[in-house]
Amino acid sequence: MRLADARSWPAAVGFGAVLAIALLLPLFGVGVPAYMHDWTWPPDPAGLREQLLQGWEPWVDDGLGHPNPYPSALPHFVVLALLAGAVPARVLLGVLLLATFVTAFAGASSFTRRVFGLGIPSLACGALYAAAPLTLTKLVAGHLSYLQAYAAFPFFALALREAHGSLRWSALGALAVGVTAVQPQFFGYEVVYALGAIVTGSATPRALRNIALLALPLMLPTLIGPTLNARGEHGVLAHQHAVIAWEQEQSAPPLDALLGLGYFTRYVDRLAPPYALSALALVPLLALAAAAQRLRDSRDARALLVCAAAGWLLVVGLNGPLALPARWAFLNVAPLSVFRELFDAMVLYWFPLCVLAAMALARLPRTAAALAVVAVAGTLAVPWSRYASYFVAAPDAATLRSVSALAQRDARTRGDSAAGRVVWWPALQPLGVPDHAQGGSDPLARTPLDGFSPLYEYQPEGRFGTAVAFARAGRWDEAAPIFGWLGVRYLVTRDGIVSFASGSPRRTMEPRAPLRAIGRTGAFTVYRVDAVRALATVEPPVRGDDLLLTPFTASLVDGTPQPGRVVAAFPYVWRNPAVADCGNAAVIADGATLADRGGAWIMAAPFDGGERCTWHAASALRSEGSRLFVAAGSADAVREPTPLPRVPLAEPRTIEESPGHWQIRITAPRDALLVVRTSYDARWRARIDGHDAGPPRAWNGFAAWPIAAGAHDVDVRYGGGAVTFALVIALMGLIANVALAVWPHGAVLTYRFHR
Questions:
Q1: Are residues 315 and 175 located together in one domain of the fold?
Q2: 627 and 661 share a domain?
Q3: Residue 76: band (very low, low, confident or very high) from pLDDT cuts 50, 70, 90
Q4: What is d(CA 128, CA 354) in angstroms, rounded to the nearest whole number?
Q5: How many degrees, rounded to 5, is the angle at CA 248 between CA 247 and CA 251?
Q6: Which one-letter DSSP state was computed for residue 277?
Q7: Rounded to an integer, what distance in angstroms lies between the CA atom of residue 77 and that of residue 52?
Q8: What is the pTM of this model?
Q9: Domain that includes residue 608, residue range
């Protein structure tokens, strides 16, 4: 039965739905999963809406904000966001996951049915593809965008085979590319698959060209986000330090990779008894048998075999035959950091394996085929039935509303209606419950507190990182003024949640003076931060503390601080205040090494202490010998920062803030600076009373503009025009490709490409 025959779809979708429900039932029983790896599905409508819509914004509010490196024009994010207020977050998550797994099943089974004419074995292919160890690993890790890209990949492979003379298939292939673009590394995997298909004659360059031309508009946000918008400083093109040590950990053992295993966290392996997963060896054995039988007479089989070999080589990485060129590439080509999680390439291995194994099943006697299916299904059923033990449930929306009510009541009592921020404590990722082996991202990271926007950063840096590090050490008298400087009005703690930032569960110090508890509900306690700066203020026009430092170059090979090495400090950002305080370019090295490689003065702090970064003479550091220091950079002369103003000149009458847009009404008592507490970027633009105020100046890391005495209406926007342009083009391309895919004459250009 062919894909063009509509009768093939009900079977694929029906079987896929049944399988998807069976696979996801353990997760549905948890609620909204939380505190595990990268799970960040917010349980509240406001937080969920903000997370889903951030792909459509040039600026995102992580931390103090930064340009968006991951824009996306895919409409289902908007649909889910619009439903977030009416449909519980748990239900929306279930719908998204069900659709993802059904699509994965339908794609793999349809490829097998259309290309090789298989019936029942094609359903086995779809089931094996959807229930792979890879998909369970990614589900536990919370990599939902990867699962969506994984689900669309078989449709790209099928369209590539058919798009030589079909406009409809070209459009379908472009749509598949557009979906896989939610995970940028899939663009590389599609190139690898396409090259293998073209070399073996399974596809033509013309088919690839047709798909590429129609997919290019859909890819624009993915291309522009990390380049023109984030400029390589955030997201997939951000330089990865100590990458070789990381890639070695990511590289799968060769034999494990043959079974579809090998992710460094070993989520699947932990759920199965020892050696129980060895039955998965049936899958590559069946695939090899099918390839041996069809290698000579089927270009499609040859393409699948080449793709599987390429996928295995990529997954084993530094443990395989390509170790030397891979090591050189990661050391010298920074953009390859997009492929830093080598296990992600498993799709290139597992998809062809599923198809080839289904071909072998079709040739086996029924009894032997049934036994093989039962053996593999039974093996996978064990981890799939037990994976819910990794999760705990996120707080429900009703509980969060009661927490918000505490802040609302406090603000009303004090007559304080100013906008501000909230920190959900502990702000030390990863978080979790003490009896679990590991933690994960904070599900409340994007949850506002009665209009107070969350201040969240997975790896806090700068002043926020300094405040978090001080608070972690119980130095709340030093942390509170920094929180207040950043506009944090409330801090909320949770009982039973600990930080795994040091690698093992660790309780953080409860807030104390000068923070003041204003109320408690359930497991939550809300604290008020006094002496808080508003999110926009009028400040004296003094120089900020932005220092012109020459950064140190960190080793790309070493990740552990030792004498004689200069390593990136970011993995140790939670250890002491200096690592965060010295900034995101901070390094760790011994005093003598820093003195030899830097200027006459070095901004540094002892690694083994709790001090902040201060100036040290290079000669003094050299005398410290092998003692380790955190260093922000060096300079030939010292320039001490200007002391921060104790109080602002004025605060706004009203302020409204959304990602990339501020509306402010404020009265300046004299000529001064309007300071907006968002990260400085030269593309911010302000209009004061309708007049263009031009680009900002940096003031203590914030964006600021000169402002005259008097009352003013100010409109501040981030100028991410490239992202807006890309999103519009992508949306138009999406509509055009959907129209071409359903157009009755889209398949008129048919060309029988014999295999």
A1: yes
A2: no
A3: confident
A4: 6
A5: 80
A6: G
A7: 5
A8: 0.92
A9: 567-635
At CA 334, angle to CA 332 and CA 336, rounded to 5? Answer: 100
Listed in sequence order, the residues at least 6 apart from 298 whose beta carbon sits closer than 8 Å to its beta carbon are 116, 755
- How many independent structural domains does the chain possess? 3
Percent of the chain with pLDDT over 90: 64
279 and 375 in a single domain? The answer is yes
Asked if residue 692 and residue 630 are part of one domain, the reply reads no
Cα-flanking dihedrals φ and ψ of residue 671, to 5°? -60, 130
Span 676-708, pLDDT tens digits: 999 999 999 999 999 999 999 988 889 999 999
Residue identified by tokens 């205040």 is 577
Q: Supply the DSSP symbol for 36.
A: S
Tokens of 466: 């300094």
pLDDT of residue 117: 92
Integer distance in angstroms from the first to the last C-alpha of the chain?
18
* Structural tokens at position 483: 């929180």
Q: Are residues 580 and 710 in the same domain?
A: no
CA 141 to CA 577: how far, in whole Å?
29
How far are the Cα atoms of 4, 266, 603, 605, 610 from residue 627, in angstroms, in the given order?
70, 36, 15, 11, 15
Q: Is the domain of 659 the same as that of 630?
A: no
The HSE-up count of residue 208 (CA atoms within 13 Å, CB side) is 16
Region at 275 (left for phi over 0; alpha for psi -120 to 50; beta for the rest): left
Whether the per-residue pLDDT at 266 is higher than 70: the answer is yes
Tens digit of pLDDT for each residue in 214-256?
A: 999 999 998 899 888 988 777 666 655 556 878 888 999 999 9
Place of tokens 């930080």: 499
Residue 395 and residue 35 in contact, taking contact as beta carbons nearer than 8 Å: no
The strand pair at 684-688 and 691-692 is best described as antiparallel
Query: Do 572 and 712 belong to one domain?
Result: no
CB 65 within 8 A of CB 457: no
Q: Look at residue 439 and give its three-state secondary structure.
A: coil
Question: Is residue 584 a part of any domain in this protein?
Answer: yes
Among 584, 607, 635, residue at a domain's last position: 635
Pairing verdict, β 614-617 and 628-635: unpaired
